[in-house]
Amino acid sequence: MSPSKKNPETNNLELQFSSDETQAIKRAAAIGGYRSITDFVICSAVKQAEEIIQSQESILSSKRDVQLFFDTVFNAPAPNEKLKAAASCF
Q: How far apart are the first and last CA of the chain?
């Protein structure tokens, strides 16, 4: 399925490639079995964009998780009576 058929709302983007880049893109599109160079370029760009976004979101989540963990460990509230009672059982 071509990328434009997945989303009926489309936008145009003008790109310019050198001759070498064009040949490499045409060759990769043919080898990859894409219906057109446009499909190849769109699929490749979207895949790369999703990888970059996922990587960045993963890094940000990791930083937040680390901060939350250390805040909880080093700034934990004092144990309440129920926790003290539970701990005394062990």
A: 62
pLDDT tens per residue across all 90 residues of the chain:
455 556 678 899 999 999 999 999 999 999 999 999 999 999 999 999 999 999 988 887 888 888 888 888 899 889 999 999 999 998
Q: What total of structural domains would you count in the chain?
A: 1
Any idea how long the chain is? Answer: 90
pTM for the model: 0.60
- Per the CB < 8 A criterion, the answer to whether 73 and 40 are in contact is no
Question: What is the domain range of residue 58?
Answer: 3-88
* Residue whose structure tokens are 């990328």: 3
Structure tokens at 24: 């490499």
Q: Residue type for 61, please?
A: S
Which CA distances in Å does 21 have to 13, 16, 26, 27, 44? 17, 9, 9, 10, 14
